[in-house]
Every structure is written in C-alpha cells, then in structure tokens.
Amino acid sequence: DEWLHYPAFKGGGESGCRHEKDPFCMLIEVQKQWATLVFNIQSAAYEDFSCLIPNPVLACLQGLRSITQTVGCFVSLYVISPKLTGLTVVVLPCLVGAGALIGSVLRRLSRLAQEQVAKATGVADEALGNVRTVKAFAMEERELYALEVDKSCEMNENLGAGIAVFQGLSNIALNCIVLGTIFAGGTLISNNEMSPGDLMSFLVASQTVQRSLASISILFGQMVRGISSGARVFEYLSLEPTIPLSGGGRIPYHSLIGRVDFMDISFSYPTRPGQQVLKRFNLTLPPCKTVAIVGESGGGKSTVAALLERFYDPTSGVIMLDGLDIRTLDPSWLRAQVIGFINQEPVLFGSSIMENIRFGKPEATDAEVINAAEQANAHRFITSFPDGYNTMVGERGVTLSGGQKQRIAIARALIKNPNILVLDEATSALDAESERVVQEALDRATRGRTVLIIAHRLSTIQGADLICVMSNGRIVEVS
Ligand SMILES: Nc1ncnc2c1ncn2[C@@H]1O[C@H](COP(=O)(O)OP(=O)(O)OP(=O)(O)O)[C@@H](O)[C@H]1O
Transmembrane residues, as ranges (predicted)? Predict the structure, then answer.
C-alpha cells in the first residue's frame, strides 16, 4: 500500500511525476530524461551517421550513457536509503578490484594473441614468397602456417574464454548484489527502517545500475581487444630511427670528388653487441678508382658497404666523404644521389621493368630509363619480351632469370648517375655466361666512378686498381 502511494510510482502528468517538488521524483526524472537523450543521440548516430562518426566516438557515447546512468542511479539510491547504498558502496570496490585484476590478465592474453597472429601472418608471407624453396625441399606438407594458426587459435580461444568468464562473473556478481539488496532491504523493513516502496524503488534503480555496469563490462571487453591491437601499431609509430632519414649538409654536384676514407672504424651490430665485426678498420677509396675487398666469408666485407650506405653508424671511428664526416651529411641525399648500391640478391618490385628501373630516379624520362638499361646490357633482352619495358616482373621479380634481374638492378643504380658505386658480390650468384654479360655491364658502369667491389671471384676483381684482403674485421694485405 505504502509503496503504491510513494510519489515516484503514482504516475500522472506528462513526466509521470505529480509532485514536482519531490527531490527523489525529480532526480529519477532527470536521470531518465538524460539517459533517453544520450540513447537517442546514440541511436541517431548509429542509424543516420554511423558512416560519418568513428567507432570510438560511438563507443564513448555508449560509455557516457552507462556512466551517467550509474552515477544518477547512485544518487537516487542514496536518497532512498543511505544504509543500503553504504552497503553497496562497500561491496562494489571489491568487485571493481577483482574486475581490474581479471582485466589485466585479459590484456596480457590479448597482447600475446595479437603477437601470435602477427607471427602466423609472417610465416604465411615467407612460405608464399619463397614458394620455390618450399617446393625444392618438398616442404608443402609441413604445415608451418597451420601450426602457428593453431597456436593463435588456441590463444584467441583462451582470450575469448577469459572474456566470457569475466562477463559471466560480473553478471553473477551483479545479480548477487540484487539478491543481497532484497535480503538486506527485507531486514530493514522488518526493523521498520525502510518501507516496501523504498525497497522496490531501490531495486529498480539498482537494476539500472546493473544494466549500465553490464554494458560497461562489454565495452571493456571490446576495449581490451582494441587497446592491445592499437598498442602494437602505436609502438611502431613511436619508434624513432637512430639514423635520421634526412637532414644535414650536401656537397654540390660539381664539387663532389668521391673520395672515401674509413678511419679507425670499429663496429658491432646492435643485435649482437658482443661480436666485434670491424676492428680499427682503415681503408681509402681514391676518387674514380676501383677498390676490391676479398676475404673469408663472415669477415665483415658487406658490413663495410652497409656502413658506407649509413644503414648503421660505426661504434667508433669516422667515415669521410671528400673530407667530411658522413654523419654530418644528409642521408637521403647520400643514398639517393651519391651512392649506387647493387647487392648479391637484387630485389625487384612486382611492377613493370620500366617502373623498377625508374625506382632509382622517380623523375627520370623514358629515354633516361632506356639509356640506363643500355648501359646495363639489359636493353636487348627487355625489348625481346612482347611487352618490352611494360613487362611485369612478378612478385620480387620471379618471372626473370638471375642475370636479367641483376642487370635491371644495375640499370636502377646507374639511372641516378651515382659518384660512388658499391657492388656487393653482384655476380656471385650467376653462371659463367650470365656473369660475362653482367660483368661487361659492370665494367662499363664503373668507368669514371669511385667503386667499392666486394667479391669472391677472381673475374670480378681483375679490373680493380687496388685489391684488399680482409680478415677478422681488418685489412691484412693490399696489392
Ligand atoms: N644484421 C646483422 N646482425 C648481427 N650480426 C650480423 C648482421 N649481419 C651480419 N652479421 C654478422 O657480422 C659478421 C660479418 O658479416 P658480413 O655479412 O659483413 O660478412 P661478409 O664478409 O660479407 O661475408 P660473406 O662473404 O659470406 O657475404 C658475420 O659474423 C655475421 O654473422
């Protein structure tokens, strides 16, 4: 009876609130209207503007609605029964603490699952990119990708189970709160400290809190997944290169002589600081001369080329270009205009021959591309293809032979007309005939340039002005 006479349940008027001066009634009404407003905005956003509003904004609106509902209902709860509300306030932090604990475990699981997905994708990429090697070793049946995907599947299942347990537990906990409220409220009613109507109002308001908290817990599950995926992206975005991409001095083209001095260079790769690859290495590349480095495998020859290209900076010592420390020069200018680099395994892009050669100088005209191809002994074989320079080379150049790929790589390096040419075992992967053709192209390309040749074969270094033998990270003989 008393409950039915309570103002909040009497109904009447447009707002359903007959006693507009009753603070409890007003509070319920304001909270209801606010929740409806936010809900309507959110629904309208979903239905009419979902393509315009980013998902995080929609999620924020949903979160905002749940949070305001929770706060509003808590105020109402306090107005109805401070004692019962106090009890809820004591229990709730314990639940929130337990939720935060489970949440941190879930975040860790989610991060591990994301890393495993990335690993599985990497394996698939490698297996597909190196399909010939996979076939050559009859490894098609070895389910490398399946293994990684199974692991990823297992991890995601664990994560899903974790989120399910989290959501299940939070629902059980919230229902327990309702049961506890009825129990505690019943005790208060029997002691005449509370009316049945108050208890019913309390329950209605606490169920709204329950619904809001349940939707917050779902949002939290989505947030856990989102944050760990985003964290990996932001981790990469926030990486700063140790060697800047650009910035620094440039030597005007007409004053550039092309003398390179390696002075007392010591170097260890950052991933293996314990292994010193170069030890007080000294070498001079005189302008317009060809210097060849030979030596045992793993002796550090390619590392010398990598340091000249500024892929790494030496641990100690200085590399000079025309008497200037290359660390003071603009790396993008050095790589794009001064040094032409041709390595053992030329990597081509899955576009046309024309675009691959033009990669060396994006603004080059078709005539310049053809000229570079002629210098690299590539023009004849390119024009023998039905599509000529528009022939697509396939992913990483798989539709070309080793010698053809190498000559396109030479043309790509020559088109920028570099002052310094670095050839890192450029012909070592070729048979005798292909090597002869490529060598011819290289002999032509090296004229009038400072050249560093890293070689295994005698034929490659025959024309060199200086031959240096490298062992154990330093030059041991010069002839
Ligand atoms: N990115 C890297 N990280 C760590 N160590 C590396 C890296 N690259 C090469 N090394 C190590 O540095 C040493 C020198 O390698 P480098 O490639 O310079 O030798 P190389 O003389 O060119 O050999 P090869 O004639 O066989 O090509 C080797 O012991 C190699 O294992």
Answer: 84-106
Q: How far is the CA of 301 from the centre of ligand 1 (A)?
A: 8
Query: What is the best residue among 242, 277, 296 to mutate for testing ligand 1's pocket, by most ligand atoms within 8 Å of CB?
Result: 277
User: Quick one: which of 140, 130, 328 has its CA closest to 244?
Assistant: 328
For 384, other C-beta atoms within 10 Å of its C-beta total: 9
- Which atom of ligand 1 lies at the shortest distance from residue 344's CA? 27
Residue nearest to atom 5 of ligand 1 (CA): 269
Q: Does ligand 1 lie within 6 Å of residue 310's CB atom?
A: no
Distance 126 CA to ligand 1 centre (A): 22
State phi, psi for 97 to the nearest 5 degrees: -60, -45
pLDDT digit string (tens) for 291-305? 999 888 888 888 999
pLDDT tens across 81-139, in order? 888 888 878 887 787 788 878 888 888 888 888 888 888 888 888 888 777 777 777 77
Of 288, 292, 306, give the one whose Cα is nearest residue 428.
Answer: 292
Ligand 1: centre distance to CA 271 (Å): 12
* Percent of residues, the chain, with pLDDT higher than 70: 87
The class level of CATH for 253-478 reads alpha beta
Confidence band, pLDDT 50/70/90 cuts, at residue 434: low
Which of these ranges, 123-132, 178-187, 369-378, 455-464, has the smallest mean pLDDT?
A: 455-464
Ligand 1 near 301 CB (within 6 A): yes
- 269 CB near ligand 1 (under 6 Å): yes
CATH code, 7-237:
1.20.1560.10
3-state helix, strand, coil in the chain (%, to 5): 60, 15, 30
Q: Do domains 7-237 and 253-478 have the same CATH topology?
A: no
Q: Which of 293, 303, 453, 460 to mutate to test the pocket of ligand 1 (most atoms within 8 A of CB)?
A: 303
Give me the residue spans of the domains in the chain.
7-237, 253-478
